[in-house]
Specification:
Helix content is about 20%, strand content about 30%. It has one helix and three strands. The radius of gyration is 12 Å and the shape is globular. About 10% of the residues are buried.
Length: about 70
């Protein structure tokens, strides 16, 4: 099964994030972090979890604060 996910890294500012619901969290996590490399984002992170009773991956960028 193939699928296409549009990761909004170009609109995600520091300290913000977005959630991608999925079943294969490891594959989506790797695809999402690879998509961040296109924008040269070294502060991109991903965390697997459950949000509003849906499993998925939370992608986010670190904030400017130390």
């Amino acid at each position: 099964m193939t699928y296409s996910i549009q990761f909004p890294w170009d609109k995600t500012e520091r300290g913000q994030g977005f959630f991608v619901p999925c079943l294969d969290t490891e594959a989506v996590r790797i695809k999402g972090l690879n998509a961040a490399l296109k924008y040269r984002l070294k502060d991109a992170r991903a965390a697997t979890g459950i949000r509003r009773e849906v499993i998925g991956v939370w992608f986010y960028r670190l904030s400017d604060r130390p």
